[in-house]
Amino acid sequence: MNIGDTASDFELPDQNGRRRRLSELLAGGPVALFFYPAAFTPGCTKEACHFRDLAAEFAAAGVQRIGISRDDVAKQKSWTDEHTLDYPLLADVDGAVASAYGVRRGSLLVKVGMPTKRVTFAIGSDGVIADVIASEINMNVHADRVLEALAR
């Protein structure tokens, strides 16, 4: 998926088991869709908490935050509760959505607990990708740049 592409629709369960469809979320406004390797890891926790800490800025811009990883529903729920995350975390257990978005890693990195690349898609309410943020080391750049891209 690249800037200017239409985001692929999907449906996955969130941390509470509720099915979420991207097209339905987009009906409520732009979406910051961030893929992260694994819950409870230091980098992913820093990134997720930064998205949480910018809740007021996202609300002011009318942008919804959605996290997605290969973790199962129970692990997503536990991580959400531990860090008081206030947005949906989706369970892409089989990696099908990560594959569709081009962020699934090869089998070697899956085995060492890094099944998904850290990439964020800024998706306008029209479903078109406005920006793609890919950084494995700067955890704050994802939330910051997606706000810039969708607040235009």
From TrEMBL:
The protein, known as: thioredoxin-dependent peroxiredoxin
Domain of life: Bacteria
Self-association and partners: Monomer.
Active site, per annotation: 44 (cysteine sulfenic acid (-soh) intermediate)
GO MF assignments: thioredoxin peroxidase activity
Source organism per UniProt: Gordonia sihwensis NBRC 108236
GO terms under cellular component: cytoplasm
InterPro entries: AhpC/TSA, Peroxiredoxin_AhpC-typ, Peroxiredoxin_BCP/PrxQ, Thioredoxin-like_sf, Thioredoxin_domain
GO terms, biological process: cell redox homeostasis; cellular response to oxidative stress
PROSITE patterns listed in its UniProt record: THIOREDOXIN_2
Record's keyword terms, sorted: Antioxidant, Disulfide bond, Oxidoreductase, Peroxidase, Redox-active center
Taxonomic placement: Bacteria, Bacillati, Actinomycetota, Actinomycetes, Mycobacteriales
Coiled coil stretches, renumbered: none
EC numbers for this chain: 1.11.1.24
Reactions catalysed, as given in the entry: a hydroperoxide + [thioredoxin]-dithiol = an alcohol + [thioredoxin]-disulfide + H2O
Group of enzyme by EC: oxidoreductase
Domain Thioredoxin residue range list: 1-152
Similarity comment: Belongs to the peroxiredoxin family. BCP/PrxQ subfamily.
Purpose: Thiol-specific peroxidase that catalyzes the reduction of hydrogen peroxide and organic hydroperoxides to water and alcohols, respectively. Plays a role in cell protection against oxidative stress by detoxifying peroxides and as sensor of hydrogen peroxide-mediated signaling events.
